[in-house]
Amino acid sequence: MNTVPIVLNKAAMRKYDDLTIPCEAVLAGYVWIDGTGINLRSKDRTLDFFPESYKDLPIWYFDGSNTQQAERDNSDTFIFPQVIYHDPFRRGNHILVLADTYKHNYQPTATNYRKDCLLLSEKAEVEEPWFGFNQEFFLMSTDGRPVGWPPGGFPSPPGPYYCAVGANRIVARDLMEAFYRCCLFAGVQINGINPGTTPSQWNFQIGPSPGIKAADDLWISRYILCRLAEEYGAVASFEPQPVEYWPGNGCFAYFSTKEMREEDGIMLIEKAIDKLARRHGAHMTEYDASSGADNARRLTGKTSMPNFKDFTAGVANRGCSVRIPRQVSEDKRGYLEDRRPAANADPYRVISVMLKTCVFDE
Fold first, then answer.
1. How far is residue 335's CA from residue 9's CA, in Å, rounded to a whole number?
2. Going from the N-terminus, what domains does the chain have, and what CATH number goes with each?
3. CA dihedral defined by 250, 204, 219, 198, rounded to 10 degrees?
């Protein structure tokens, strides 16, 4: 193999972990999506109580002119708490707070897709929709090169790295083990992790969960990953095509309704796929952060991925737009996997457009 083992630059031992924090103090890290629709921001505040619900938490604000969400002469942008997670970094009673963003007039910011997604999810509750996500990403050095790739060159072609073992094939397993545990501690419904098809690429799976929960969990897990990677001197990249001609990064979506999961649900799955085929263009607009431009670079019909312009479906075929897993085909019930969303897709947008197409026939 042409790969070289790498020792990640782990952070020095924390010098202040043993300092006593007053027992009544709760440190709350507010996390939100910025104006790019891709990047996460966060800031912390001290509470003198432990919240029983997100509704107990104070609405806060930040300088939206520095996050592409407001003008400098009217920069205060509100963050509304929505979901509470345990903080895997501070632990104890400390919390992470997933929040969404609102302008000065209390209207959603341009990248606040959570509000509409929640309304659609509540409207669709009678169908009991479940969603899951398989998030791919690269670990990059701070100079933008994939971690573990030979200096000035490329590793051997994809093949030996997927779900592999060995220092000549795998990069940063210790980081990913820490990430896995941090997500479980936080309360994220993480279903698994595995090495991807190239060195420095990893996958993790969120859900399946009812309604909007998988999207909330995916966003906070992205935050946990990026925050944890800081301590290893690495950067988690959700760029859909970080290296030309190599496999890119997707965020595959799993979807089912109650009837799909019941006996002979395969018929409902096939009907949903027909609906997805008819609205292929509308979905591609929603499936990355650049209205389709990112996926146009990733979905070339090569490297085991479908072509951006064409809709295809098949059983156990990972080169299709939508895959029916082998077990689902045999059981005649279950779920479908939409392989078109890019790694930087907003899961709120993915859920919303899938509900509109598959449940509401819009």
1. 41
2. 1-9+19-362 (3.30.590.10)
3. -40
Place of tokens 């031992």: 13
Asked whether 209 and 131 are in contact (CB, 8 A), the reply is yes
- Measured between alpha carbons, how far is 89 from 73 in angstroms, rounded to an integer? 36
pLDDT digits (tens, 9 = 90+) for 304-332: 788 999 999 999 998 999 999 999 999 99
Please report the DSSP string for 89-109 in residue order.
TT-TT-EEEEEEEE-TTSPBP
Q: Nearest CA to 217 among 132, 160, 283?
A: 132
Task: Report how far residue 92's alpha carbon sits from residue 338's, in angstroms, rounded to the nearest whole number.
Answer: 38
pLDDT tens digits for 143-179?
Answer: 999 998 998 889 988 889 999 999 999 999 999 999 9
Structure pTM?
Answer: 0.94
Q: Show the 3-state SS of 25-89.
A: CEEEEEEEECCCCCCEEEEEEEECCCCCCHHHCCCEEEEHHHCCCCCHHHCEEEEEEEEEEECCC
User: Of 11, 65, 60, which is closest to residue 35 (Cα–Cα)?
Assistant: 65
